[in-house]
């Protein structure tokens, strides 16, 4: 079975390289945080050749590499719910303020993640995967509409900038793209999907999830490697990816997208291919097909069939359930019995 290939590699019985990819999804990434907690519980943290994160998946990976999966997971019900409900992180009224964004990523990264739960920036920087360029953050280049990868971070400032660059949702996080200037680019490496260095004086980015085939392009570059993809969207939730405003308002969404992206034509084209024309849905569907096909080297771990992402609200109880569901989903994908983890057992009883 396909899962045996992965289990052999994770157990050291095979020299196959495994790529770990963690997608984003805002608060829905509580699921992938639970999956990462399961990987850590099994002692597989250092078994991967490359670690690739996108949007919220990138900061979950930082907790993971720093050995703080408990902090990373509990942050969803402890800190994130407080930030959302207190209007510190998301405030729709800011839509009417041209100087403020609805989603304050600067608050999230520079304040919340520096206090509680604090990302251990120094441990991420010294981790072998970061020093070797094997920890990568995916972004969308607004000028070309293509995916790029950031790696080899040398300062906490560079790590913070990478999270923002990968999570910069148009309008929600800001009208214009997030800008990585020459000073920040000097503190990291920028490569294309094939690993070739890309030299830039400036890089303007949007959320990597806006790219058409935003993770399929990455894992198909290395078909000989094993690819473990942790993602948050089950089959019953993919209809929302085709057109977030609903079929009857598609023309309005197209109009709004032109308002957002008129100065970056390639980003507009990527947005239309991904969000308006069902690109993300095709990507998830293709991932599911490749997961079910025993001949491929791709395993996608989705939430369990009985888990409905839409039912979870921004409350402590809901986020706890989401983390636990992610933990159990990882074990279900590998056909293993979950190990006993004391802090998770306490949360199950809560």
Task: Describe the secondary-structure layout.
Elements (H helix, E strand, L loop, with lengths): L1 H9 L7 E5 L7 H12 L8 E5 L1 H10 L3 H17 L19 H7 L9 H6 L1 H4 L3 E7 L5 E5 L4 H12 L10 E3 L1 H4 L3 E3 L11 E4 L9 H4 L6 E5 L8 H4 L7 H12 L3 H12 L2 H14 L5 E4 L14 H19 L7 H8 L1
Parallel strand pairs: 1-2, 1-8, 2-3, 8-9
Antiparallel strand pairs: 3-4, 3-7, 4-6, 5-7
Helix pairs in contact: 2-3, 2-4, 2-15, 3-4, 4-15, 5-8, 12-13
Explained architecture:
With 350 residues, the chain is of the alpha/beta class. The protein is 44% helix and 12% strand. The chain contains 16 helices and nine strands. The protein has helices at residues 2-10, 30-41, 56-65, 69-85, 105-111, 121-126, 128-131, 156-167, 182-185, 216-219, 239-242, 250-261, 265-276, 279-292, 316-334, 342-349, and strands spanning 18-22, 50-54, 135-141, 147-151, 178-180, 189-191, 203-206, 226-230, 298-301. Strands 1, 2, 3, 4, 5, 6, 7, 8 and 9 form a nine-stranded mixed beta sheet that branches. Helix 2 (30-41) links the parallel strand 1 (18-22) and strand 2. Helix 2 runs parallel beside helix 3 (56-65) and helix 3 runs antiparallel to helix 4.
Give a brief rundown of this model:
By secondary structure, the chain is of the alpha/beta class.
Shape: globular
Overall mean confidence score, pLDDT: 85
Task: State the separation between the terminal residues, measured CA to CA.
Answer: 37 Å
Tell me the strand percentage band. Answer: 5-15%
Largest sheet composition: 9 strands, mixed
Number of H/I helices: 16
Structural class: alpha/beta
The H-and-E topology, N to C, reads as HEHEHHHHHEEHEHEEHEHHHHEHH
Q: Can you tell me the residue ranges where pLDDT is under 50 for at least 5 consecutive residues? A: none
Q: Tally the beta strands.
A: 9
Helix content: 40-55%
Please compute the radius of gyration using only Cα atoms: 19 Å
């Amino acid at each position: 079975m396909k899962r045996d290939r992965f289990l052999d590699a994770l157990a050291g019985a095979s020299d196959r390289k495994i790529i770990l990819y963690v997608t984003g999804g805002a608060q829905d990434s509580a699921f992938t945080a639970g999956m990462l907690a399961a990987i850590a519980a099994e002692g597989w943290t250092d078994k991967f050749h490359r670690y690739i994160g996108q949007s919220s998946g990138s900061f979950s990976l930082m907790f993971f590499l720093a050995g703080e999966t408990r902090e990373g997971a509990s942050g969803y019900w402890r800190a994130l719910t407080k930030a959302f409900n207190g209007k510190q992180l998301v405030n729709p009224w800011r839509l009417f303020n041209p100087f403020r964004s609805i989603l304050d990523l600067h608050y999230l990264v520079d304040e919340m993640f520096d206090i509680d739960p604090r990302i251990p920036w120094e441990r991420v920087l010294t981790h072998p995967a970061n020093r070797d360029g094997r920890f990568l953050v995916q972004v969308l280049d607004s000028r070309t509409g293509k995916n790029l990868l950031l790696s080899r971070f040398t300062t906490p400032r560079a790590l913070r900038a990478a999270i923002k660059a990968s999570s910069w949702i148009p309008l929600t996080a800001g009208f214009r793209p997030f800008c990585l200037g020459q000073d920040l680019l000097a503190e990291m490496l920028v490569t294309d999907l094939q690993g070739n260095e890309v030299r830039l004086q400036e890089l303007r980015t949007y959320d990597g999830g806006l790219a058409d085939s935003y993770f399929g392009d990455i894992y198909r570059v290395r078909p000989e490697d094993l690819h473990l993809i942790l993602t948050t969207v089950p089959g019953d939730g993919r209809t929302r990816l085709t057109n977030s405003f609903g079929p009857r308002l598609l023309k309005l969404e197209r109009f709004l997208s032109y308002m957002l992206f008129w100065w970056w034509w390639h980003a507009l084209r990527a947005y239309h291919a991904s969000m308006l024309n069902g690109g993300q849905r095709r990507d998830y569907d293709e991932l599911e097909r490749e997961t079910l096909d025993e001949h491929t080297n791709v395993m996608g771990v989705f939430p369990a069939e009985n888990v409905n992402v839409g039912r979870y609200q921004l409350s402590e109880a809901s986020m706890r359930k989401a983390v636990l569901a992610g933990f159990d989903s990882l074990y279900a994908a590998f056909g293993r019995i979950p190990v006993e983890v004391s802090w998770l057992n306490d949360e199950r009883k809560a």
